Amino acid sequence: MALDLAADLDFALSLADAADAFTLPHFSSRSFTVLLKENQTEVTEIDRGCETLVMDMVRAQRPTHAWYGEEHGTGGDSGSEWIWVIDPIDGTSNFVRGVPVWATLIALVHRDMGPMIGVVSAPAMQTRWWGVLEGGAYCNGHPIRVSDVSELSEATLSITDNAPWRDLGYGDWIKNLKKSVKRLRGFGDFWQHMLVAQGSIDIAVDAIGLEPYDIAALIPVVHAAGGKLVDRQGNTNWRADTAISTNNRVPIKL
């Protein structure tokens, strides 16, 4: 199935422009309040306002599509083959504490083929990544590619280990992986996967407990850059609860 996604990529980038124009001034001025959701994660009115802004644009300009966001759930044409998946602020805890590592994640997902377009926009870092499946990956307009590292002993790993990994019996795997690499870091959230895509690191292992809107936008960028993003079963699944990205060269056994 051949698709021309140029217009949708342009639209996704315009959504990111609008999100950045909304979120960054509030981050800079520290003008927001913080609440706790039922799951005890932090949320601000900026998260919710950003998602509303983006979804209003989707409703207006892609009325035949569906949408799914972290703060406001699902809507649109439930029978559509296309769904826009939005995380208005990935890294809200960083946003709240004045750490610039946060981003708006925007994905266009096809019902059968999965995530096709991903945009990861981190305005406080002055960095934006995007990718189109089989159409290339970019950072600030420049093509990016995963690293050529092929030996685990030469690899750089970023990991956000958490208790569920150990609870599910992956404790030894995590321990051995950490011991096997050359460098160990903990960049976290979207950033570690984008660093894999741009060839700065070689492996990124995220915490268990992710949601689809944490993952969907990452897949097209990593894959278009020549890498691979999978869940803990080794499958590319945007609806999974974890994400492991590699340069698709370093051998790791799950």
The strand line-up of the biggest sheet is: 4-3-5-6-7-8-9-10
In the CATH hierarchy, the architecture of the largest domain is 2-Layer Sandwich
- Total DSSP E strands: 15
By secondary-structure content and strand pairing, the structural class works out as: alpha+beta
Low-confidence stretches: none
N-to-C CA distance: 31 Å
Over all CA atoms, what is the radius of gyration?
17 Å
Q: Determine the fraction of residues in helical runs and give it as a percent range.
A: 25-40%
CATH homology superfamily name of the largest domain = Fructose-1,6-Bisphosphatase, subunit A, domain 1
CATH class of the largest domain: Alpha Beta
H/E element order: HEEHEEEHEEEEEEHHEHEHHEE
CATH fold-level label of the largest domain: Fructose-1,6-Bisphosphatase, Chain A, domain 1
Mean pLDDT: 93
What characterizes the major β-sheet? 8 strands, mixed
Give an overview of the whole structure.
- Helices cover 32% and strands 27% of the residues.
- It has helices at residues 6-29, 45-61, 92-97, 163-167, 171-180, 189-197, 212-215, 218-224; strands spanning 34-36, 42-44, 66-69, 73-76, 82-90, 103-110, 114-122, 127-132, 136-139, 142-143, 156-159, 183-185, 203-205, 228-230, 244-246.
- The mean pLDDT is 93.
- It is built from 8 helices and 15 strands.
- The protein folds into 2 domains: 6-143, Fructose-1,6-Bisphosphatase, subunit A, domain 1 (Fructose-1,6-Bisphosphatase, Chain A, domain 1), CATH 3.30.540; 152-246, D-Maltodextrin-Binding Protein, domain 2 (3-Layer(aba) Sandwich).
- Helix 1 (6-29) runs antiparallel to helix 2 (45-61) and helix 6 runs parallel beside helix 8 (218-224).
- A hairpin with a 3-residue loop joins strand 3 (66-69) and strand 4.
- The strands form 3 sheets. It has an 8-stranded mixed beta sheet, with helices on both faces. Strands 12-11-13-15-14 form a 5-stranded mixed beta sheet. Strands 1-2 form a two-stranded antiparallel ribbon.
- The chain is α+β, with helices and mostly antiparallel strands and 254 residues long.
